[in-house]
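Cross-check.
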Amino acid sequence: QVQLVESGGGLVQPGGSLRLSCAGYGSPLSRYVMAWFRQTPGKEREFVAAITWSTGNGNYADSVKGRFTISRDNVKNALYLQINNLKPEDTAVYYCAARRLEMSMFDYWGQGTQVTVSS
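Predicted model, tokenized:
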């Protein structure tokens, strides 16, 4: 079992940047498929990005391609999301998630970190 703790959210102006972090406790994150999701009030949780841990390659939702970068650190057992050129529509709670390889759905979630983009 793994515990996930996000940090790094905040209030930022449009065009600004943030780096979200997700620390893993209790198990190496390399054992899981790791991803970021986000959710705004009244909407379903939305996939943002996922990473192939062994290669570091990421795949992204179309809405964030070119602006978001997912990465990982084996030593720190952490997952990151670099967010550039933030837009008001990026405002959401961002969640880190882990999926066991044998599972079809993400079964471990962090508590979320709020990102608010506003001038």
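The CA atoms of residues 9 and 113 lie 5 Å apart. The chain has no helices and eleven strands. Passed to J.P. for a second look.
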